[in-house]
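Q: Hi! Curious about what FMN reductase looks like structurally. Here's the sequence.
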Amino acid sequence: MSKPLKVVAVSGALHKPSKTDALVEAIVSELSVALPIEVQFVKLSDIAPQLANVVSRTDLPTHIYAHIQAIEAADFLVVGSPVYRGSYTGLFKHFFDFVDHESLIDTPILLAATGGSERHALVIDHQLRPLFSFFQSLTLPIGVYGTDKDFTNYRINNDALQNRIELAVNRALPWLLQPDPRKQAVLRQPFLAQL
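A: Let's find out. The predicted structure is below.
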């Protein structure tokens, strides 16, 4: 890989400190061991007051619009949310409503979530994965879910969760080391036009 992978890490947590922030940061840290990366963090807790009242992309504050543009141009996304009422946060969805619906086609995404107990673990497959399927993204097969008991003072304390992070990153590497599928799609267009 000649240049660093452009990674955007999004945490849907609304409070600080946050287990979701800690989980997303741990995933990015593990990824940085395997690949040269350039990371931009987007923490909803930092932008919530300015984001909540915006209803049009053209009305986004400059710094939030810059986050949206970074997501749209990313090579890889790490996306996590805490679970509220069985789903991701409303502000998390509101934020992604501003992302252009065609900008994430074929973008690989590693999904993560945190919740109070194991009973919310399916949020990754039943809530997050359908959202990014709408964007036609490549949601990676292994997500990472952590519960309250996996953290002490907002740091991961569970070897099983750390192992899950390592497994998810290792399984992501083949997707990240291959040529960018979005560029490959552009190269295939002249061929498809001949059919």
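A: A fun detail: The chain is about 45% helix and 20% strand.
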